[in-house]
Fold this protein.
Amino acid sequence: MVKDIQQLNEKIKQESSFVDLLTMEIGKAIVGQKYMVERLLIGLLSNGHILLEGVPGLAKTLAVKSLAAAIDAKFQRLQFTPDLLPADLIGTLIYNQKETKFETKKGPIFANFILADEINRSPAKVQSALLEAMQERQVTISDQTFKLPEPFLVLATQNPIEQEGTYPLPEAQVDRFMLKLKITYPSKEEELLVMRQNVSGVSTEIKNVVSTKEIIHARSVVSEIYMDEKIERYILDIVFASRNPREYKMEKIASLISYGASPRASINLALASKAYAFIKRRGYVIPEDVRAIAMDVLRHRIGLTYEAEAEERSSESIVEEILNNVEVP
């Protein structure tokens, strides 16, 4: 068993060498934001979509654009607005007068990286068209079904400041995002570098350092990473503690939770932990991997009661409490 783990470790070290290349290339355009870039790679390696929340100007669009450029993948940015229609996203049938027949015109969703900017600005029917594509990884136009390209990663952003004229994502739909990231302001030193970079007028060109084939291959390698049963039980304990806190002697937070994390949380926490171990060049998952990624997997999956809102408690503080109280293997 130990020999197998050693061999797996060596294999992961070799297979994950492109991670540094990719991070360095993205780093040419993005200053700081290590957390965001790392999480983008986790989503990419574990085939999960990401919801980003942050004020404007924090390089969210630039990060996805840079990632797509470094991977030689097709990138599409979609600005969600109240008048957007599902056909603007997935495509529609167009009548060809010459041929006297209808032809399918594919929409911008047929790309590897989709940046859905301000997803909460568009009505429910557009949101559900995108979420169906995310879940099924296919699109139906009239009576024809089209597979979406691989890899397919949706990165949706929402602005936490303006709530006027927005359509908040329903809880059940938010659950389809593997990770929800909260992006914060850069440090003073980082912002100084950002300012200098933008004032210099020198544009940074990002080269293709990884192919989409390599990413698809890396995903199969990530699934080979060893996860002990103790780690699996630990993941389940964290998720179940969000549903039945009293069973885990957390009476304090029981009245603050209206509903706990869904089974998707357990699946995504396991997948993301493996991807995190891969990025850290390890062939096995340790409890620290689970703890490092748990907040991003769980923060949008725990419902708060009115009592929690009255006490000004956030889902993050509840996840923290769970992580501090659930026994680490």
User: Anything to note?
Assistant: The chain has 15 helices and eleven strands. The first helix runs from residue 2 to 15. The longest strand covers residues 91-96.
